[in-house]
């Protein structure tokens, strides 16, 4: 039932919630923890790159269109995720609408600072040439664009820069150099300490060495070139009819052994092998089951179905229409079975392991670099770190005035989802699976499984409008 006193009550809480629905998350030992409640955050995430990496560099990026983000945030909220990963970002675009929408629904962001455009990533074939002050200026501008947002979980200094055994020779010192420069820039210019990590390709021969090399301490615990978390892109568990769908055959048991002594959070920065389709995600109960002491969850690759790559959870069309794939439904039902309370209550004092000091003996492979001499900041780079980049563009939260998704979205069964909307969360909450099914109920969205009648929807819209008005006054009062 709708009445104005309820609306006013809701609005009072919404003052806080729509501006800062999430609290900062920090790294504590081998865990991500909420900076206020000390609850552990296990990453329940998806990779978010609508359009694929080819779409980048054409005047938009995945976080630049609020209309599309509202649609996707509503679907992700019903799915149950608490984190997205975005690979390619243009720091000259405005991300306020999108990030504020994800913030309102309690979804954190892991962001890559690099892009495929020239001078915007390290080139393993030309390390010295690509590690330049022009490059640093780009990655620092990504920091500036995002560092004010409370739902920023961390930056990746690199993604799969080491793609084969050979890269393990020359590349590692450069990843530490980039991590150092980002960490130093953040310490000087950002409102809080935002962790910087690395996302590794699934190259078995150099995986443990990569983690050991990047996470040891060269000069005590505060060494800025040390990564704050380690992501692993893992595709070793391939569904029920493959012979890899168990704890041992997928080599998940080895990961737990190898990373059991980790001093930093380790998680799957991508997972979701698609050799068996549709995917049923039967690795989910294992990842969030007996691996949770060691692993901090993972991000499913990927939200958007790229042209027949069959890694997508949702089809997105140029006209703004979306349709859920059955993989989304399967993942949703796996997430619904998780015991979130148990996942949040990890004992992080049990995982406070001091980082080992860097030494040759940490490195096992004979071809992996075991020198911890890190390249100097390239010419012109230290001035950027000391003084900040010129004319930075800083994003900031804005009020979220629209909750109802205006674009048509279809369930996997073809039914139109009526009244699909985001459901802004109260202060201090991150999103969790809600037990609903999105495709199954064509008269309502999963985030509102009991169904919203049309008249109520109009009233909800009125409430949203009221909230927006109050919110604006809240912001001006802050
Ligand atoms: C954690 O919260 C404290 C107190 O509000 C704040 O000073 C600090 O910057 C926060 N740290 C992080 C890493 O968010
Ligand atoms: C390992 O790193 C050191 C220090 O940066 C560098 O001088 C050396 O060439 C690298 N080794 C290989 C095999 O590339
Ligand atoms: C983890 O779960 C798998 C089943 O998926 C089981 O085979 C394995 O023994 C378990 N490991 C531990 C350490 O409990
Ligand atoms: C949007 O495009 C898709 C794919 O081409 C099509 O199936 C759908 O009917 C279109 N929707 C609208 C509302 O035009
Ligand atoms: C955002 O996407 C919608 C739906 O595709 C489109 O109509 C609109 O023009 C886009 N807005 C901007 C600013 O690009
Ligand atoms: C957390 O772990 C530590 C170390 O294993 C242990 O001493 C402590 O009792 C645990 N605390 C809780 C609340 O379980």
Automatic annotation (TrEMBL):
Record-listed E.C. numbers: 2.4.1.-
Compartments (UniProt record): Cell membrane
Region (Disordered): 426-453
GO BP field: fungal-type cell wall (1->3)-beta-D-glucan biosynthetic process; fungal-type cell wall organization
Membrane topology recorded in Swiss-Prot or TrEMBL: Lipid-anchor; GPI-anchor
Top class in the EC scheme: transferase
InterPro entries (alphabetical): GH (IPR017853), Glucanosyltransferase (IPR004886)
Matching SUPFAM superfamilies: (Trans)glycosidases (SSF51445)
Low complexity composition-biased segments: 430-452
One cellular component term from this protein's GO annotations in UniProt: plasma membrane
Keywords, alphabetical: Glycoprotein, GPI-anchor, Lipoprotein, Membrane, Signal, Transferase
Signal peptide (from-to): 1-21
Tagged with keyword Glycoprotein: yes
GO function terms (MF aspect): 1,3-beta-glucanosyltransferase activity
Function text: Splits internally a 1,3-beta-glucan molecule and transfers the newly generated reducing end (the donor) to the non-reducing end of another 1,3-beta-glucan molecule (the acceptor) forming a 1,3-beta linkage, resulting in the elongation of 1,3-beta-glucan chains in the cell wall.
Entry's family note: Belongs to the glycosyl hydrolase 72 family.
Protein name stated in the entry: 1,3-beta-glucanosyltransferase
Organism per entry: Ramalina farinacea
């Amino acid at each position: 039932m709708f009445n104005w006193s309820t609306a006013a009550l809701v609005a009072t809480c919404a003052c806080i919630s729509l501006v800062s629905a999430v609290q900062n998350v920090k790294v504590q030992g081998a865990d991500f923890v909420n900076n206020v409640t000390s609850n552990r955050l296990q990453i329940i995430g998806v990779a978010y790159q609508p359009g694929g990496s080819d779409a980048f560099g054409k005047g938009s990026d995945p976080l630049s269109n609020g209309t599309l983000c509202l649609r996707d945030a509503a679907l992700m909220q019903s799915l149950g995720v608490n984190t997205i990963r975005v690979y390619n970002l243009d720091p000259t675009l405005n991300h306020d609408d999108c990030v504020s929408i994800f913030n309102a629904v309690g979804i954190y962001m892991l962001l890559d600072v690099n892009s495929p455009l020239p001078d915007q990533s390290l080139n393993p074939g030309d390390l010295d040439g690509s590690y330049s002050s022009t490059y640093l200026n780009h990655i620092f501008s990504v920091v500036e664009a995002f560092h004010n947002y409370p739902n920023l979980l961390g930056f990746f200094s690199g993604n799969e820069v080491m793609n084969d055994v050979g890269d393990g020779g020359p590349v590692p010192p450069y990843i530490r150099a980039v991590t150092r420069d980002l960490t130093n820039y953040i310490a000087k210019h950002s409102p809080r300490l935002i962790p910087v990590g690395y996302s590794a390709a699934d190259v078995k021969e150099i995986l443990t060495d990569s983690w050991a090399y990047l996470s040891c301490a060269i000069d005590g615990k505060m060494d800025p070139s040390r990564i704050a978390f380690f992501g692993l892109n893992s595709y070793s568990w391939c569904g029920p009819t493959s012979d890899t769908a168990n704890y041992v055959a997928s080599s998940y048991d080895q990961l737990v052994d190898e990373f059991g002594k980790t001093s930093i959070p380790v998680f799957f920065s991508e997972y979701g092998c698609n050799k068996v389709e549709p995917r049923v995600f039967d690795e989910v109960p294992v990842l969030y089951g007996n691996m949770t002491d060691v692993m901090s969850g993972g991000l499913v690759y990927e939200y958007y179905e790229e042209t027949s790559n069959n890694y997508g959870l949702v089809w997105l069309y140029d006209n703004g229409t979306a349709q859920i794939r059955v993989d989304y439904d399967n993942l949703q039902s796996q997430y619904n079975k998780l015991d979130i309370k148990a996942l949040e209550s990890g004992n992080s004092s049990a995982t406070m392991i001091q980082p080992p000091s860097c030494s040759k003996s940490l490195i096992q492979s004979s071809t992996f670099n075991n020198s911890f001499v890190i390249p100097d900041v390239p010419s012109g780079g230290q001035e950027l770190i000391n003084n900040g980049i010129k004319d930075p563009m800083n994003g900031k939260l804005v009020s979220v005035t629209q909750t109802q998704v205006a674009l048509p979205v279809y369930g996997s069964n073809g039914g139109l989802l009526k009244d699909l909307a985001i459901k802004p969360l109260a202060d201090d909450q991150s999103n969790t699976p809600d037990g609903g099914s999105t495709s199954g109920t064509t008269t309502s969205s999963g985030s509102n499984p009991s169904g919203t009648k049309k008249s109520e929807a109009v009233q909800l819209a009125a409430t949203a409008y009221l909230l927006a008005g109050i919110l604006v006054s809240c912001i001006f009062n802050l």
